[in-house]
UniProtKB/TrEMBL annotation:
InterPro entries: 4-PPantetheinyl_Trfase_dom, 4-PPantetheinyl_Trfase_dom_sf, 4PPT_N, Enbac_synth_compD-like. The keyword Transmembrane helix does not apply. Residues 110-201 form the 4'-phosphopantetheinyl transferase domain. This is 4'-phosphopantetheinyl transferase superfamily protein. The lineage of its organism: Bacteria, Bacillati, Actinomycetota, Actinomycetes, Mycobacteriales. Residues 35-102 form the 4'-phosphopantetheinyl transferase N-terminal domain. PANTHER family: ENTEROBACTIN SYNTHASE COMPONENT D. It comes from the Bacteria. One of its GO terms (molecular function) is transferase activity. Keywords: Transferase.
Amino acid sequence: MQDEELFPSAARYVYILSEPKGVDLTNYHELDPLEQLLVSQSVDRRKAEFGDARWCAHRALHELGADNRGPILRGERGMPLWPEGFTGSLTHTKGFRAAVAAPKSKVLALGVDAEPAEPLPEGVLEQIARRGELSQLHKLRAAGIKGADRLLFCAKEAVYKAWFPMTHRWLGFEDAEIDLRLDGTLVAYLLVRPTPLPFIEGRWRVRGNYVIVSTAIKA
């Protein structure tokens, strides 16, 4: 599935809506045994999330013509290890799982993150937000955007998911200043040095009960 509002045209995006309180292990049990092993000691809810997100990833690769490429294993800091020649990102939260993939000849790195469109738990915003980002949240709330602080959190996560596979370096919440724009776009200004690029661009949407953020670094 392609989402032209959120992702580059070369990417394929697949998602699953599930029962928030349900636990369906169907997709987990259909994974390659090496993928299952990554969460074999986890509780069933974690297995279900993992299985659904990996199913989305394999489906996205299939839509790109990358069949029979083997399991998507896990690298440094949990980074998904995509088949040679492809890049992508996964996300899961209660009731929602998704993945996006693209050929590296078109896109160097991708990030996607989704969260319920509701306020962050008390005290979290102060830990993740830079001073300049707080004024943006006031504008978003005034425009009727649900879960504006959750949107900022998602944006930070999506930026990190695109950054880490490219650099293999940590990026803290304070290491990027996010410019969230009312037109559904964003620019993350990278404050760490050295950096291979000065900023990462992205897009965001509120879809139903979820905020979804994508980032992309084009080839």
